[in-house]
């Protein structure tokens, strides 16, 4: 037995070393940070991102850095799933970063008097109704602050994806209910911003994508941004599977609508978008921008933005976005006037965009960023090793099942059943896997299909453990039946 376990450990170590070798962690580098009164340079940004790409093994990444009314740098690094180089003009999905754009579109209509921010949604959106009388109290501000009471736990969000339009989405929403009284609790739920998108359509008399183009994209010069895949179709993103990047088409159910996560853009256009927040180019007045950045009475979340304290003091207003093959994050510092956007075409269990944004913020403040890490490689290595161990233990359990059955011949059935519990625990865990993730995600809806994307290494490892448990239990039962027939 000791020899077998030693062999398993060696195999697990080889698996871990193979994955870790794919993305080595680099020691910290002393970057040429700006001094007092100086500005971060493109050369420093490129040096830092070059180290990041080496350390994290990301397939492709694009960034934008702004300060005040100036775009400091936009650039791309790595490649897309077709092998083409990523540039500042490579189209990327930005997922929930879309929410700040939707909030901006709403605020342009608030400024024009077409939407009442503190008026009820029901009073401004014909056809909005739910199987909950409290829905009549939801205001537009509640939607943008995510304090409406909408929740994945009380709304069939998967069923809503069957709608073919935002108006159809409203019809399917009628069967849902609220998880809390409007304005009393923060719950992150995409429904808020889909309803806001439909409100924009009704208030403007234009399709949401067309109004976003007219009121937000065009005024900011964002000529390569869209909500329509017929205009711009990004290459497939990638998932990290035990250290190997695999091209995957995005889950189509998350591309049907626009307000919560549908924007396709590039780093160059994200730089122009950031100027609306770091400079003086916003399509709404300053007082409305201040409202967008202000937290609600019940949570720090504002209107597509959240404050994030920085290690060196101060804070960034931020929002991240994660689909199943693309990730993005944006942030700006009200204190320094710098803005940052990080877009990547790879999604893994360990996100790379957040630490990169913090690293850029550190550089902009004259601080050395933390050394680029290899969290993805370490996570994948641990899971690969776990899968090897699970398969090995399953094979050992099957091989030793005859001896196990002989030792328990004639013993009470309940004692034998208890000895089967440990090997079946992985089976129970795997069966409850999506539900457990939902609980850890504060009730956000999770499906088995979603678990086959960026969480795939974890899914495969848990599946291997469950299969090993089933094989061991099944073999033991067969062996016990044979022993019983002979006696």
UniProtKB/TrEMBL annotation:
Signal peptide per UniProt: 1-27
Enzyme nomenclature, EC number: 3.-.-.-
Pfam families referenced in this protein's UniProt entry, alphabetically: Beta-lactamase
Domain Beta-lactamase-related as annotated: residue spans: 46-349
GO terms of molecular function: hydrolase activity
Membrane-spanning ranges: 381-399, 420-437, 457-478
Entry keyword set: Hydrolase, Membrane, Signal, Transmembrane, Transmembrane helix
Entries under InterPro entries matching the protein: AmpC-like (IPR050491), Beta-lactam-related (IPR001466), Beta-lactam/transpept-like (IPR012338)
UniProt-recorded name of the protein: Serine hydrolase domain-containing protein
Native species: Nocardiopsis sediminis
């Amino acid at each position: 037995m000791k020899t077998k376990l030693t062999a398993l450990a060696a195999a697990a170590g080889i698996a871990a070393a193979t994955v870790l070798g794919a993305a080595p962690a680099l020691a910290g580098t002393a970057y040429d940070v700006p001094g007092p009164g100086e500005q971060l340079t493109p050369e420093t940004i490129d040096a830092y991102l070059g180290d990041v790409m080496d350390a994290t093994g990301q397939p492709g990444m694009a960034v934008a850095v702004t300060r005040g009314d100036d775009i400091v740098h936009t650039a791309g690094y790595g490649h897309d799933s077709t092998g083409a180089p990523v540039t500042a003009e490579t189209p990327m999905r930005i997922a929930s970063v879309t929410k700040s754009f939707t909030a901006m579109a709403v605020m342009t209509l608030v400024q024009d008097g077409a939407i009442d921010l503190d008026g009820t949604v029901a009073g401004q959106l014909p056809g909005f109704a739910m199987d909950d009388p409290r829905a009549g109290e939801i205001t537009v501000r509640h939607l943008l602050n995510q304090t409406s009471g909408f929740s994945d736990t009380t709304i069939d969000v998967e069923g809503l994806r069957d709608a073919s339009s935002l108006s159809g989405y409203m019809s399917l929403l009628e069967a849902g209910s609220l998880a809390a009284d409007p304005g009393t609790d923060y719950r992150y739920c995409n429904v808020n911003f889909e309803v806001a998108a439909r409100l924009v359509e009704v208030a403007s008399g234009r399709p949401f994508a067309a109004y976003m183009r007219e009121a937000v994209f065009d005024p900011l010069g964002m000529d390569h941004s869209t909500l329509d895949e017929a205009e711009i179709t990004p290459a497939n993103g990638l998932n990290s599977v035990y250290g190997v990047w695999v091209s995957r088409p995005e889950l189509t159910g998350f591309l049907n609508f626009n307000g919560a996560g549908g924007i396709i853009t590039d780093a160059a256009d994200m730089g122009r978008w950031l100027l609306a927040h770091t400079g003086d180019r916003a399509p709404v007045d300053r007082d409305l921008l201040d409202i967008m950045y202000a937290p609600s009475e019940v949570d720090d979340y504002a209107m597509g933005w959240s404050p994030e304290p920085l290690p060196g003091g101060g804070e960034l207003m931020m929002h991240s976005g994660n689909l199943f093959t693309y990730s993005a994050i944006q942030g700006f510092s009200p204190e320094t006037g710098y803005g940052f956007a990080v877009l990547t075409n790879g999604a893994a269990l360990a996100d790379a965009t957040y630490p990169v944004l913090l690293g850029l913020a550190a550089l902009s403040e004259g601080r050395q960023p933390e050394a680029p890490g290899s969290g993805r490689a370490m996570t994948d290595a641990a899971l690969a090793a776990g899968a090897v161990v699970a398969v090995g233990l399953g094979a050992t359990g099957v091989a030793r099942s005859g001896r196990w059955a002989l030792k328990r011949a004639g013993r009470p059935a309940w004692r034998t059943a208890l000895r089967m519990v440990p090997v079946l625990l992985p089976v129970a865990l795997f069966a409850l896997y999506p539900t457990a993730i939902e609980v850890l995600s504060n009730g956000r809806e999770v499906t088995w299909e979603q678990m086959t994307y960026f969480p795939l290494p974890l899914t495969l490892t848990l599946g291997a453990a469950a299969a090993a448990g089933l094989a061991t239990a099944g073999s033991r039962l067969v062996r016990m039946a044979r022993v019983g027939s002979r006696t």
